[in-house]
Amino acid sequence: MALRLTDDDVRRLDGGDGPAVRLAMRVVVRLAEALGAEELLDISGAHVDSCLYNGLAPLEFAELLAGDGATVVVPTTLNVSSLDLLHPDLYRGDPEEGDLARRQMDAFVAMGCRPTWTCAPYQLEQRPAFGEHVAWAESNAIAFANSVLGARTDRYGDLVDICAAITGRAPAAGLHLDENRRATVLFRLDALTPGLHDSSLLAPVLGAFIGSVVGNRVPVIDGLPVPPGEDWLKALGAAAASAGSVALFHVVGATPEAPTLETALGGVAPTEVVVVTPADLRGARDRLNTVQLDGGGGDSLATVSLGTPHYSVAEFGRFVEALGGRRVHPEIDVYISTGRGILDEVEALGWVETLRSAGVTIVTDTCTYVTPILADTTGPAMTDSAKWAYYAPGNLGVDVVLASTRECVESAVAGRMVLDETIWTTQVDDG
Amino acid sequence: MAEPPRLQVAGPASGPVEGVVLRLDEPLSFWGGLDAATGEVIDRHHPQVGRSVTGRVLVMHSGRGSSSGSSVLLEAVRCGTAPVAIVMVEPDAIVALGAIVASELYGVALPVVLVDEAQFARLRTGVRVDVGVDGSVRTIAAG
Questions:
Q1: Which value does ipTM take for this structure?
Q2: In this model, does residue A296 exceed pLDDT 70?
Q3: B17-141 adopts what CATH topology?
Q4: Which of A189, A336, B1, B110 could anchor a disulfide with B99, C-beta 3.0 to 4.6 Å?
Q5: What residue spans define the domains of chain A?
Q6: What is the pTM of this model?
Q7: B75 in reach of chain A (CB within 8 A)
Q8: If you count residue pairs, one on A and one on B, with CB atoms under 8 Å apart, how many are there?
């Protein structure tokens, strides 16, 4: 069936609103055709990922739109860029590339996007309501918006995110539609050890495992002993979205479209049921690690990187508590990435000073795996984020170990890897 | 909603695109997984790490990961390191977008087409295929 356009859509497409709107509309319409959409729908907001510099071609596209006077017609937030504008000295990359990255950022601000520079726009004050249609890019943000907020966005990529914001329109396809939001794959957690349930490692490794199993199908998770909080769901979604292309997941009793298992499944039997074992999760962790933990590589460590996706206020609180007034080891670089909005709150709580004097570097506006910030990429890095573990070796050439937040803190203080492998078999008390 | 069309993004109107298949055993996130400057797979967790996608008919089951993949594919087109066609089973907006904007911005027609599971299974690395203007994928020579 052909795509039905409104009179307003046709005017935009024909150049009635200028060349920039015409180009943006052409991209939205061509995507709608590729997805088999029958119509476009109005969006109430957008989150744009294209502000990260990825070469001259995307920059050319952004400057073409901005140069033609395009402006966004819905409230639009911006994802991380390549630069930390609040701490510019942290950037260790090529200065020329830094200038291009700045141009990429400026083009989107010129089009009226809010300079939020965060991959966790759901941690900002205003966030989409249940059922609201938005156009979000950034894989972890998409997963969070759909799954935790119950807002509706398809898995948008760079380039169309800004086009949707300029036109206020998006294809009525994918996860905007009821029929595609039902879970089809059930993950049961009854077989996990209490130690795993207590560890902050569960969310990222479970997410990585689920992402590798489901691809782009919609999973539902059942059998968590305690309903998880937003930070847990954030870590799970970020991992699942990078290991697969998960853009929506349900957790029974915790996410809004899964009050019961039956509701999440839409009353239909799942096409696949996976009983998750500790061995599955250990395997997912081992696949992400590029350092052999038991193979003579020793326990040396250079870097600890946290805050992927951007740390929340609660996560800063847990980190400060786990640190317990200790300093990190002088030979370990510890980075925490966060949004500038969260930084203000953390500063007001006095934690920025606490962390600085403990030897921790706070990074804003960007993230340590998308741009050259790490002082040492020759030694191994430890992270509590499956997403960081997935991307950093390719982007930075660094070796990586995925661990719990508690293990990251203890390792940072000790100056070497301190890992607790007992969580796979027995009960431990872990943050 | 209608079924997504087999032809996600059109190739050149002038005729089919021909090339040798590079089949990926796992989906690849172009962002973080493909170096647009060289066309090389750089995802160290990926089975085809080190292989070049340049000039190949890239075959993968579905898309993966980062939404910046569209930008990286577009940049690969500008750098001349992109595949000549992309063949998938699952439609993927992020992959389609890179090709759509490449055509809007540079007039470069990089076809993105869908095949069924049975045909996907036959598209092994080394097989020479052509991708028709209608989105059909035809084997010319075994690898």
A1: 0.96
A2: no
A3: Glucose Oxidase; domain 1 (3.50.30)
A4: B110
A5: 7-179, 182-288, 303-423
A6: 0.95
A7: yes
A8: 165
